[in-house]
Amino acid sequence: MATQQPPQRSYRAPCPNCGAPVEFRSAASAFAVCAFCRSTIARDGAALRRIGTAAELFDDHSPLQLGVSGRFLNAAFTLVGRVQLAYDGGVWNEWHAHFDAGRSGWLSEDNGRYVFAFPAPPGDPPPLASLPVGAGVTIGGVPWTVASSVHARPGAVEGELPAAPQAAGHVVVELRNPRGEVASLEYPAAGGAPAVFVGRAVELGDLALSGLKEESAREFKAQATACPQCGAALAPTLEATKTIVCGQCHAVVDLSPGIGGDLAYYVQHNGGESGLQSQIELGASATLALGGAAQPWQVVGYVERRTVPGGDAEDVEFWREYLLYNRLRGFAFLVDANDGWSWTAPLAGAPQFDGGRAAQWQGTTYRELYRYTGRVTYVLGEFYWRLAQDETTFNVDYADASGRRRLNREQTDEVVWSGGETLEAAAIARAFGLPDAAPLLRDASPLRFDGSRLLVVVVIAVILFGAIAVLAAAMGDRCRDVRAAYGVQSPEYLACSRAVGSGASYRSSGGAFGGASGAGGHK
Fold first, then answer.
1. Burial track 260-272 (b if 16+ CB lie within 10 A, e otherwise)
2. pLDDT score at 285
3. How far apart are CA 354 and CA 369, in angstroms?
4. Which residue has the higher pLDDT, 278 or 79?
5. 449 with 457: CB under 8 angstroms?
6. 265 CB contacts (<8 Å, ≥6 apart)?
7. Which residues 6+ apart lie within 8 Å of 439 measured at CB?
8. What single string gives the DSSP state of each residue in 118-148?
9. Fewest beta carbons less than 10 Å away: which of 101, 419, 423, 472?
10. What are phi and psi of 388, to 5 degrees?
11. What is the predicted pLDDT for the residue at 46?
């Protein structure tokens, strides 16, 4: 009977500064931080050399910690080190994972999402200047899309790492592809060839983890700071919170500097614009199957958004988004738009997209529904990204042939793809224990006919169809492409008809599948 091989022998020696034991579990680790005196230690063979003092860790209350063990692709690993990287949007963690077979990898943690990545051959990486956000690039014959580009600076470290972080930092360019892979090109700020890492998104629930810091949430709730606008207590409840809304004055406060830091904020005055109001209370929980097994989700944030008109003839659309959180799944959104309810969550990869009217994802073709610019008008609760006042995003919505499955491409200073499905209002009401679905039906069609009015419906339909046919003939080719793609009775064609008939240029803006604002994440 085969026996499990013991893990690679570790190396332990006294800290040159305080004498406490410093252990190196991985042969790939050439750098460590003494857990007692915070000295940074370089390993040269059997000798340890003190090279400085590590900065204190920013307490982000991650559920992960040194010593957590798990399995990835049926291989056992242990988290032996961490480096915190800071950028203009906040801080994220890179956990150094040591596998029993001696392999070294990185479990990256940002915005409640996780990626397991491993060093890859650099190949022939493109120059940094040729990688603007949103651009397509082919590396080693594989097509990628540039999702983000940030200058990351090393902050605090703990445990053991393959090498000491470079003080000048590096530019991290994140790439995604249609195979669901995530790549990071790390260009040193001082110049030189980038380090390359390739991996896939993972969920903590799939890693069979043991040793998680279960007390994280309880400790985090105990921390509070005063609202810079009114002085009321702000008590964030999520480890990933970068923006929180004051429950007293509804000021939007940026927490990215950390509790106790100099907190920037802006004041809101426009809640409930166009009759919108939250239909599901903050803090409410429901068991929902969002792309997998049913899991408990909690509403932690609420957003009201509107389209930005592109011309005088274009209607303004309003919609709501509810930010949901699950400790092992991360974040997702419930979207209440004018075409009904849906859920959406950030995708690990990026659909195949050429800027046209279709996108390919996991063997399915999605056709463009709407493209529009969205603007945040009102928020409540907590958010894992920094919310700017009047934040705007450029969006494109897609649907598959059934209309049920959806994709959304959202671009700001990074590109975020999200995907999900439509939902029934009655199912949401049942999940959240609402008395009935009536409050959730604001966006249902206003035309509700019983049998006695069926004749009226038929007459209206015949007249409308005839009017569309006459108008189509009059417009000639101006809406031909839209008609060919979606049909003569489609909402897209009707919108084009209205726009052309009024003398305006056609630009659909009513989809608002949306969600995942600022949800890119790095690595």
1. eeebebeebeeee
2. 94
3. 16
4. 79
5. yes
6. 227, 228, 229, 246, 251, 252, 253, 254
7. 279, 429
8. EEE---SPPPGGG--TT-EEEETTEEEEEEE
9. 101
10. -90, 150
11. 53
